[in-house]
Amino acid sequence: MGGQPLFILDEDAQRTHGKDAQSSNISAGKAVSESVRTTLGPRGMDKMLVSDDGDVVITNDGATILSEMDIEHPAAQMIVEVAQTQEDEVGDGTTTASVLAGELLTKGEDLLDDDVHPTTIVEGYSAAAELAQDAINEIVLDADLDDETLVEVAESSMTGKGTGDVEAGKLAEVVVDAVRHAKSDNGVRRDNIEVHSQSGAASSATKLVEGVIVDETAVHDNMPTSVEDASIAVIDTELDVRESNIDAEYNVSSVDQLNAALDAEESELQGYAEEVVESGADVAFVTEDVADRVASQLAKEGVFVADGISSSTAKDIVEATGAKRVGSLEALDEDALGHADSVNVEKQGDDDVTFITGGATAESVTVIARGSTEHVVDELERALNDALDTVIAALDAGGVVPGAGATEIAIADHIRSEAASIEGRKQLAVEAFADAVDVLPRTLAENTGLDAIDALVDLRAEHESEGIAGVISEGQTGVVGDPVDYGILDPAAVKREAVDSATEAATMIVRIDDVISSS
User: Fold this and answer.
1) Domains along the chain?
2) DSSP H helical segments within 438-482, as ranges?
3) Catalytic residue among 59, 61, 407, 490
């Protein structure tokens, strides 16, 4: 039968299907993965990212690199999501997850070229991922997570990242101290640890403060800059003349009426100051504005007041001091006040900041990250946050495993040993997964100056004979050895999450055989 052709898509829509779609998606995912591969490990390189506005970011943090890149391809965006998921779940290992996802795509493309069906690849990868998890569980170290071990975990996380003029080991001690202060019977509350960055000093000036740092300072020059044994109010209302809710016009026809209006206004403002003083507060943090006349009166009474406090900062103050946030001065009484050993205004670089230390419920701590320039301090802040997350992951999510590629060598070896028991073409995908995992120790070897092929052979031989083998950065090159002896440890949770997220992204991309984009 003849007839007119049937169009089901808009004439401006574009469609790519079959091998062309698979090749396009896989190439995009591989390209994104390759962009961060050289940052992996202690000898990894940095990337300079320049935005349209000229803003510059210098980092080797995988999550930061991928989030700053302007990526439009939907398959490439999935690799970015892998890094984001890794960052959200465990706070580190974003480069590992991204590189593994890219290599799984590379091996998947080879299987597709050999006419292995995408569903078979997905099934094989899923089976291999389960074997990888078994291997990780087997290699978890039977060791107490004491401070020394946690310092090694934190130092391993920061080695190779921008830490300015200070060794990663010194910063690792600060990180572990912060985590120990925030640890309770229910685990570590990450929200109780803040990293406050401030340029203008060497990175060696980085330190831990048992309390909260507030960027805002006193609203009046005559207010005290130091208050000991402070009673603290947190106020969620404006201490200024109240404005009418309706659009009204007032006619003043005499001087007496004007004076009466001014007296009423003055009385209202005076009342605000009196209520703060009568509550017993000698420090007040206000999320709204404080009128100059209220500030002046409170300054005469020796009360320290900071206004324009953000909601998140107010929350931190409440958690540190035990204060209650009040929405009106009528609710401000002695029971609503929090307490701290001291509230001090100190100069950090060119800026003044307020330190609240020794709070009544002080599980909150702040790591002050210092650096000579904005670029240095930004990278140091990222390194500290990653280290904090890895230490918490080690404590709360399953212990530690050997780093330096040793866990990946163990994963690949275990998968290969089990692959023979898997029937059919799925076995090819399982073996390809093992080969993909090898990209991680191979990249570590390349980045430390070793020959990748020779290093991989040595790693497998050392693992076979000793049961553990990693790439150790030593001087200007690297050696094959036991990473535990060198104190190179990673949280097991980081490895587990990297395997899962990379596998999910790779299998999703491999299954796509049709891309339809509308105009």
Assistant:
1) 20-142+401-512 (1.10.560.10), 147-210+362-398 (3.30.260.10), 217-343 (3.50.7.10)
2) 439-447, 452-466
3) 61
Q: Which two tokens stand for residue 323?
A: 């204060």
Q: Which of 39, 94, 106, 313 is catalytic?
A: 94
Asked about 149 being catalytic, the answer comes back as no
CA–CA dist 271, 279 (Å, integer): 12
Active-site residue flag, 477:
no
Q: What is the pTM of this model?
A: 0.77
Please pick, among 307, 386, 413, 438, the residue that the annotation labels catalytic: 386
Q: How many helices (H) and strands (E) does the chain have?
A: 16, 20
Angle, helix 406-419 to helix 452-466, in steps of 10 degrees: 80
Asked about 321 being catalytic, the answer comes back as no
Q: How far apart are CA 194 and CA 200, in angstroms?
A: 19
Would you put residue 163 in left (φ > 0), alpha (ψ -120 to 50) or beta? alpha
- The pLDDT tens digits of the residues spanning 436-461 come to 999 999 998 888 888 889 999 999 99
What contacts 248, CB < 8 A, 6 or more positions away? none
Residue 390 annotated in active site = no
